[in-house]
Amino acid sequence: MLKGIVIGNVVSTRKQEALVGSKFMEVQILQNGKETDEYIIAVDSVGAGIGETVLLTTGSSARLALSHPNVPTDAVIVGIVDPV
Question: 3-class DSSP state for residue 15?
Fold first, then answer.
C-alpha cells in the first residue's frame, strides 16, 4: 500500500466502458511522512477530496478493490487517513 495526498481531479470525458462513472484523482506520494516528487493517478473508491491524506493499493490487487474485478486499473484509493 501507498500513502499520499490528493492534489487534484483528473477529468476524462471518454474512457473505457468499465470505468464510466469512476472518479480519477491525482495523488502525490508520501514516503516517511514527507512529500515526494512522485505522482500517481488513481480511481477513487471512497469519496476522497482534494487535500486529504489517502491510502492506495496498486497492481493486480487494485482491481479487487472495485466492485467489478475486470476493471482495467493499476491504482485505487481505498482509504482516507483520519487527521491526528
Answer: coil
User: CATH number, domain at 70?
Assistant: 2.40.50.220
The tally of domains found in the chain comes to 1
Cβ–Cβ < 8 Å for 50, 8: yes
Range of the domain at 45: 2-80
17-44 tens-digit pLDDT = 888 889 999 999 999 989 999 999 999 9
> DSSP 3-state helix, strand, coil percentages of the chain (rounded to 5)?
10, 50, 40
Question: Are 79 and 54 spatial neighbours (Cβ–Cβ below 8 Å)?
Answer: yes
